[in-house]
Amino acid sequence: MANTEQTLFAQRFRGFFPVVIDVETGGFNKETDALLEIAASILKMDDEGLLSIDHTLHFHIEPFAGANIEPAAIEFNGIDPFSALRGAVTEEHAIKEICKAVRKAQKAAGCQRSVVVAHNAAFDHGFLNAAIERNNIKRTPFHPFVSFDTTSLAGLALGQTVLAKACRAAGIEFDNSQAHSALYDTERTAELYCLIVNRWQQLGGWPLAATDDADNEAQDDENNSEEQN
User: Fold this and answer.
1) pTM value?
2) Which residues contact residue 32 at a Cβ distance below 8 angstroms, ignoring those fewer than 6 apart?
3) pLDDT at position 227 over 80
4) Which residues share a beta bridge with 114?
C-alpha cells in the first residue's frame, strides 16, 4: 500500500483501522454461550480515500469446553455445532489467525489500533473480547471497547436500523435466505459501512474544511468589538 494511502487511512479515523466483524453464537451470554462462527472483513482505501472490502476471513468454531448452547439460538441460525462437515477449528486458532491478518493490514495502512465495526456492535465485540480473554491471547490489535456500530450509522444515514432493510435502502442486495451466516452478514455489513463512509465524503463531509487560525482570531476580535459597542 502506498504512503499516500497509508496517510489517508490513518487520517480518516484518527489512527484507527476499522475491521468489520460478525459472529454466530449459541446464545446471548458472551461468558457462557458458545462462539460458533466468526468472520472479519478487512478493508482497503484507494487514492481518493474511498473504502471497500479487501478480503474476508471466515471460521467455523468448535464450542469451547463447557459452553452452553441454547436450542432457540441453533434454531435461529441453523448451525449444527457438532457436524464434522463444518470443518470447525478452535477459538484460539480462529482468533489468532484474524489478529495476525488484522495486524498486517493495520500496519500497512499506517494505523495504530484496530476497531470493531459491527451491526449491533456491543454483541459481536463482547463475544470477540470474551474469546480473546478465554484463550489468554495477549497480542491483539483490537481496541478493548471502542467500536463503530452500523446500526446507529444506518439509522442516521438511511433511516433504517435492521441490517436487511438498511442494505436495501442503500441499494445493496440482501438475500434473507443467506442471512445469519457470519460470512454473509459480515460482508453485507462491510458494504453498508463503506457506502455510508464514502457517501459522507462525496457529500462534502470529509475531509474537514481547513480553517485559518489568524482569520478566526480576527473575526473573534471583530465580534467582541461589536458586542462592546
Assistant:
1) 0.89
2) 67, 68
3) no
4) 17, 142
